[in-house]
Amino acid sequence: MNPEQRRLLRATRQHVEGLRSLGVSAVASDDADANDSPQAVKVSMTNRTDRLTRLVNEITKCHRCPLYRSRTHAVVGDGSLNASLVFVGEAPGREEDLQGKPFVGAAGQLLTKMIQAMGLRREEVYICNVLKDRPPANRTPLPEEIEACLPFLYEQLEVIQPRVICTLGAVATKALLGPSSSISQLRGQVHTYRGISLVPTFHPAFLLRNPPAKKLAWSDLKKVKQLLEEGPQDKG
Ligand code: URA
Hints:
By secondary structure, the chain is α/β, with parallel strands linked by helices. It has 11 helices and 7 strands. It has helices spanning 3-22, 30-34, 38-42, 45-61, 94-99, 106-117, 143-160, 170-177, 183-186, 204-209, 214-230, and strands at 24-26, 78-80, 85-89, 126-129, 164-168, 191-193, 196-201.
């Protein structure tokens, strides 16, 4: 191997490591995008990975609110950049902060089961939070923390362009739909966020404390599945 080949190998390894740290577990080829609609071509996979790589750099260096002082890891997101479905939670908890991955604690195990019950694998959806850093003692995010962190979520959704967003709990639902309505008014209906169908459901941590609500959450997830099945099957 000559020095140029070694340099390329090193750069490729670094890029793959960067993608792993983004939580990227599946990347479609650009050839697939080339055959898609002009809209899908607009954000090609290369474009997506580049934009998300830039985003992860920004998030891991972010000092927009004081939460960076107590973080072990910023938690950007996890899953496929080609996902048709994005789940949005509230903020990382203790386990998530330690591992740098969203929904890996008890609530995360339930979320994984919910995804599997829909006939999907965790790796084929994308999971992220409104806040990228853990609030102390898992307290509810403050309005100023949400305001500082929201542009990162907007950018993630713009890059991934899912067909459906499922918000988990009041914080995520209000962050994307506006603070005026209560979760009980918003749940049970399909909303729209920038042209994308949005289905609010209960946060898995709430479902762990209130198992009877699982029945309602399941009806929300069935709605999500129906929306996914109604749309075009291959997303660029
Ligand atoms: N709760 C959340 O809202 N997000 C996580 O990542 C974990 C628990």
